[in-house]
Specification:
The protein has 476 residues and is of the alpha+beta class. It has 5 helices and 30 strands.
């Protein structure tokens, strides 16, 4: 059995052990040399020469007839040695080459005969494979023949790249180890397409977090301590602006979230507002909570750059104002229509009569008288004119029942249309006004929030999501 690092574990569980190498032939040769030396103390120099010659021949002969040794070792499911195949889950064929320049190699098999592992070794412990010392490239296989692990040993410790695979052949873990310790980037892949990454130095995490991502490239940082997300506030320089149908939208892409916002100044329901439209797309791997009242803050800025806080209206507060304004509007509408219905069907006609008159009179005459002293005569004349006018007026009121009925029908239709319009307004607010939401991974919400408007030259809105602040600024 190869030792291997478990997926997601900070360091490999590697144990270096020692074993007895096969040096039987060398021992035999050594014993022969020793015995020969003890028995030749009285020989002449010529005899010594013959002895050395015989030893050389013996060494050559031993090497010529030396053979590789092949052992079969049985292990249980925990890779503890067993003496019989009947109790084994795995067996190993270990090659001990006669030539020391050749590598010691082994092959492991499932007890059913499928190849389980290949590699090299320095020593093998027949009783506890965790104490074996491996060397060189090692590969472990699934029963279906696909690779499960691939790594390189140096004197019993993993050094270099380490790979782990799923049974279908896809990559599961890619990392690097130095002397059996994680060192460098550790990447673990999941069957759903997500992945996790962390950086290690000499077996310890470089940071207090690791990164989880998905196929869309969205990332979220999680703490090692409790695996909770770390939300980082984006800088204003990360804010982008795009136009949709002529409307500018400011947005951020951070922490696996896309948070977009635009604003419109408006007067509705008897008050001036900033209506802010918001879109939040959760492309992270964890749910997020969004409550407009607690998540949004706002202030205005005047020409002297003095701040004034702006009240963010909750859905309930805004709906109360809408209903109140609609109630008063409905009362005014009702009074006007009632008056119209009361006068419906009645018509008034007025007749005016004018009389003009004029006239004149003329008078004339003469007179004479005779006396003793003479006579006298005379004449007279005179006249007068007159004129005038008179005007009379009469009013007649009539009632047309048909016209009164038509007026009442039209009035009722206007009232119905007004009530329907009010309902549409309330429904639009109910449907579009943002409320408290849990936004799950892959979900997107959109809607509006009304913020009171005050005099100034600019307004700033901050959307806080799990401590990450997204700042938007608008001039008006």
């Amino acid at each position: 059995m190869f030792q291997y690092i478990k997926t997601g574990v900070a360091a490999a569980a590697l144990n270096a052990g020692t074993g007895a190498d096969n040096q039987g032939q060398t021992a035999m040769v050594g014993d022969s040399i020793s015995k020969h030396r003890r028995s030749s103390k009285s020989h002449t120099s010529r005899g010594n020469f013959k002895s050395y010659f015989l030893i050389a021949v013996l060494l050559i002969t031993c090497n010529a007839f030396a053979q590789d040794r092949v052992d079969t070792i049985y292990y249980d499911k925990d890779w503890k040695g067993v003496s019989s195949r009947s109790f084994a889950d795995f067996y190993r064929i270990a090659l001990y080459p006669a030539n020391e320049n050749h590598r010691k190699l082994f092959r492991d098999f499932y007890i059913t005969g499928e190849l389980q592992a290949t590699g090299g070794f320095i020593s093998i412990d027949k009783f506890d494979d965790s104490k074996s010392v491996f060397d060189g490239e090692g590969i472990i296989y699934f029963k279906n023949g696909k690779i499960q692990y691939k790594k390189t040993y140096q004197n019993g410790k993993i050094n270099g790249e380490y790979f782990e695979y799923f049974e279908d052949g896809l990559m599961k873990v890619k990392t690097n180890l130095v002397n059996g310790e994680l060192h460098g980037l550790y990447t673990e892949f999941y069957e759903n397409g997500n992945f996790a990454q962390a950086e290690y130095i000499n077996g310890a995490p470089k940071n207090d977090f690791y990164v989880v991502g998905n196929q869309s490239g969205q990332l979220v940082k999680l703490r090692f301590s409790d695996h909770t997300p770390i939300w980082e506030s984006p800088s204003v320089s990360e804010r982008r602006t795009e136009f949709q149908d002529g409307t500018p939208w400011q947005y951020y892409v951070k922490n696996g979230l896309t948070v977009a916002q635009t604003t419109t100044t408006t007067k509705e329901h008897g008050k001036k507002w900033h209506r802010i439209d918001i879109i939040i797309a959760n492309n992270s791997l964890v749910p997020i909570e969004f409550d407009p009242v607690n998540s949004i803050t706002a202030f205005s800025l005047d020409k002297k750059e003095r701040k004034a806080g702006l009240n963010v209206w909750s859905y309930d507060s805004f709906m109360r104002r809408v209903r109140n304004r609609q109630t008063w509007d409905a009362i005014a509408m009702g009074v006007a229509e009632f008056s119209a219905q009361q006068n419906a069907g009645y018509s008034t006609s007025t007749t005016n009569t004018s009389t003009r008159y004029s006239g004149s009179t003329n008078r004339s005459g003469s007179a004479s008288a005779v006396g003793s002293g003479g006579w006298a005569s005379g004449t007279y004349s005179g006249g007068s004119t007159y004129s005038g006018s008179s005007r009379t007026s009469s009013t007649t009121t009539s009632y047309d029942a048909s016209a009164a009925y038509q007026t009442r029908v039209l009035s009722q239709n206007r009232i119905a249309e007004f009530e329907n319009s009010q309902w549409n307004v309330r429904n639009a607010v109910q449907q579009g006004y943002l409320k408290k939401n849990t936004i799950f991974p892959g979900q997107t919400i959109s809607g509006s929030v009304y913020v009171e408007r005050k005099s100034g030259v600019a307004a700033y809105f901050t959307i806080n999501i799990n401590g990450a602040e997204h700042v938007y600024g608008w001039s008006y």
